What does this fold into?
Amino acid sequence: MAKQMKSRAIVRPGLRTGESVRVLIPHAKVTQRLKELARDIRRDFPKEALHLIGVLKGCVFFLADLARELGGEVSFDFLAVSSYTKGTDSTGEVRLLKDLDISIEGKTLIVVEDILDTGLTLKYLLRLFEEKKPKKLRVVVLLDKVDRRIADVHADYVGFTIPNEFVVGYGLDFSERYRNLTDVCVLQFDSAGKAKSK
Ligand code: IMP
It folds into this structure.
C-alpha cells in the first residue's frame, strides 16, 4: 500500500534542565529565503561553475539545501575551524582543524557560513583563501548579527539579519546540541541552565 504523505513532524528539541528555545525563524521562512539567495547568486554568476566551501559543522543543512537550489554546475568542499568559546561567547581565537581536500586555485568560490557574529572567523578564512588564488571569492551567510561585529568583514549575500541573541537549530549548536532543530531558535537559560550547560 502506498505511504500517505504526512506533514513535517514536530521535532522535540531535547531540552536540558534550565534551557528553553523560542522559534525565531520558522523552517518555511528559511526555505523561502534560500530560494531567493540562490536566485541572487545565480543572477551574479549565471553560467559559472560554483565551488561552495562549507564551514563545518554549522553549515551542513544550509549548504545542502542551498546547493540544490542553485542549479548549474556546483561542487563543494568543507573545512573545519574552532572558534574558541566560553559558554556562548567567542574569545576571538581561530584555529584550522580540517583543511580543504580540493584545490581552490582559479575557482569561483562561495564561502557558506551559518552565522556571522564578531566576523573574526570569516576574516581568518578570507585571508587563508585569498592566498590560494581563487578566481572570485564571495560569502553567503544564513544569519548576520551585525551589532556584534568586531572584524571589518561583510557577507555578499545574507539570509537574515538577527538581533544579538544566541541561536540554535538548522545546523547551529550549543555544545553540539540542538543542530537538528528545523527552525532557527533563540536559546534561553534560566539561572540554573548556564551552569549545567556543558
Ligand atoms: P564569529 O564570532 O563571527 O567568528 O563566529 C564564530 C562562530 O561562532 C560561528 O561560525 C558560529 O559557529 C559560532 N556562533 C556565533 N554566534 C552563534 C550563535 O548565536 N549560535 C551558535 N553559534 C554561534
